[in-house]
Amino acid sequence: MFRINQEFLKFIEDHFQHANDSVGIELVSFESNEILMEQDQIVRNVYLIKSGICKVYFEEENGKEYILEFLSTGEILGELEIIRDETCLCSVKSIIKVEAFKIPKNYFLKLLNGNLSLNKMIIHSFAERIINTSKKASHQKLYSIEYSLTKIMEMQKKNDFEISKSDLSAYLGISIRSLNRSLKSLKENPS
Amino acid sequence: MFRINQEFLKFIEDHFQHANDSVGIELVSFESNEILMEQDQIVRNVYLIKSGICKVYFEEENGKEYILEFLSTGEILGELEIIRDETCLCSVKSIIKVEAFKIPKNYFLKLLNGNLSLNKMIIHSFAERIINTSKKASHQKLYSIEYSLTKIMEMQKKNDFEISKSDLSAYLGISIRSLNRSLKSLKENPS
DNA sequence: TTTTCACTGGGACAAATGTCCTTGATTACA
DNA sequence: TGTAATCAAGGACATTTGTCCCAGTGAAAA
């Protein structure tokens, strides 16, 4: 999250500029709150974020939403489903204005089949996701909410950007009521 | 977890049989409760499990343990750290007798650099881990304990193998007291 | 056989979290 | 300007979960 992966971005920007039109890479943009990918739908493109921020979330059968991560510049979405040839595992929505390179499924697969350095980039981005997701899961089960909350608040400040309370609570996997309580307790007791 | 990845296993078994000795792949075995990888230590080898089951867990600073997943036949460990050139992110311990191929770091890196099909296998195994870890995190935050507990109990039965209560509670991220309560409630009300 | 020890399960209480609902503030609209 | 509608914050209570501890069981040692 909020890791700027220049390497990835450079790789695709080069392809965008030099590849011929038939390749089909486009630069597209989304306003705030637009859906880039919808859970259980068929994936036709990979997106690489050029600017802006998205949330990646599960819509659970009990109606609740769980935000896995936030994606920003240089991060990719849709690749996992295309690699596994599956429908979308989760939904992705812009939370501020987003610009992204849209890469058609077939071209992405073709690149993946012949290009070792793209494979390496995917491996590294997957590795980072595994670590983030694992640590988040552990922290959210074994530490107090305040612990994870402090971390994400610091990150917000550092990146000068604000996550809504409803997104914050979905990220932490708690109710807004509990989030309010924790925010209050952090304010009163800023350890 | 308990996914038998024959493809991976076949790949390494071929290398084990045909590569010359200098490659350094060895078949090693561990009794129950032996440590294969220790958090924060340097990783010198990748292991590919031939038989048996391991637990992969974080040892948190507050003394608690969180089990991320259980690994069995055809699953790999240590590769993520070697790829990222980092110390162990988590610890891995056998919970029953384990046989595994031990692959030296340098040989693994060499393969990774030239072999597209190994890259593909790593990508697929990472993808699966991302999905498992993400779903587990979401379920553990948004559903009752009984939900995850039922799932893992079914899996235990299907694979004819028993996880200790202390490992079960570390996998679910709850105390043994809560686990006992949930087990009792499942027995009284087997929905 | 008796005693001690270690371990497991569960009771009792405390703390954390969720649900429901009221209140107050802000916005939209007549 | 006044009224209705909407939304966020927090009170009150219920439920869940954790912590602490005790009793019962079984195993090991005297």
Automatic annotation (TrEMBL), chains A, B:
PROSITE patterns: CNMP_BINDING_3. GO terms for molecular function: DNA-binding transcription factor activity. SMART domains: cNMP. InterPro entries: cNMP-bd_dom, cNMP-bd_dom_sf, Env_Response_Regulators, RmlC-like_jellyroll. CDD domains: CAP_ED. Pfam families: cNMP_binding. Residues 25-129 form the Cyclic nucleotide-binding domain. Gene3D superfamilies: Jelly Rolls. GO terms for cellular component: cytosol. PANTHER family: CRP FAMILY TRANSCRIPTIONAL REGULATORY PROTEIN, REGULATORY PROTEIN YEIL. This is Crp/Fnr family transcriptional regulator. The lineage of its organism: Bacteria, Pseudomonadati, Bacteroidota, Flavobacteriia, Flavobacteriales.
